[in-house]
Specification:
Strand content: 25-35%
Oligomer: single chain
Distance between the termini: 9 Å
Largest sheet: 7 strands, mixed
Mean pLDDT: 92
CATH topology: Maf protein
Number of helices: 6
Number of strands: 7
Length: 191
């Protein structure tokens, strides 16, 4: 029988990663207000937003293990969130092209009785140099409006990403290697 987890997210990528690891996942959108505050360090912002999501969902599932995550893309002291529209996505990708940025995912776990754990994972991503035509083709092929930094690592296949140092699943949105360690150590693997 699969172990149960409540995911405080509607992200199909996060749900897929958890199901692939053998969990029975219930997705619940938190509705929590997320901060977009440049005065925060990347890990602090990701953990703050993940904590808000976890708190909002944990009250609905007090006897379950709730996992919430927030992923931020950061370069040169700037956050690259989810683009507002295609021109915003093009702006982000143009700025990231040929350069290296950091992807940080904050993960907060809430267990029965309100106990919790939190961690942040960082990966470094380098993009290929990309011209206007390649960026337009990418935006035509990939839905980017719901993705931090306006790109999807899980579907890239070397198209825009030159290299990743660290966890690929972190760049996708949920650092599974670290999460599985925490779940095993804390015994929060669900029922």
């Amino acid at each position: 029988m699969a172990r149960r987890l409540v995911l405080a997210s509607a992200s199909p990528r996060r749900k897929f990663l958890l199901e692939e690891a053998g969990f029975d996942v219930t997705c619940v959108v938190s509705g929590a207000d997320e901060l977009d505050d440049p005065s925060f360090a990347p890990a602090a912002l990701a953990l703050e937003n993940a904590g808000r999501k976890a708190a909002a969902v944990a009250v609905q599932f007090p006897e379950e293990t709730v996992i919430a995550a927030d992923t931020v893309v950061w370069m040169d002291g700037r956050f690259y969130g989810k683009p507002a529209d295609r021109p915003d996505a093009l702006r982000m990708l143009t700025e990231l092209a040929g350069r290296t940025h950091v992807v940080v995912t904050g993960v907060v776990l809430r267990g029965p009785g309100g106990s919790g754990d939190a961690f942040a994972e960082s990966s470094t991503v380098r993009f290929h140099p990309l011209g206007a035509a390649a960026l337009a083709d990418y935006l035509d092929a990939v839905h980017t409006l719901d993705k931090a930094g306006a790109y999807a690592a899980q579907d890239d296949n070397g198209r825009i990403i030159h290299s990743i140092e660290g966890s690929l699943t972190n760049v996708i949105g949920l650092p599974m290697e670290r999460l599985l360690e925490v779940l095993a150590t804390t015994g929060r693997a669900g029922r």
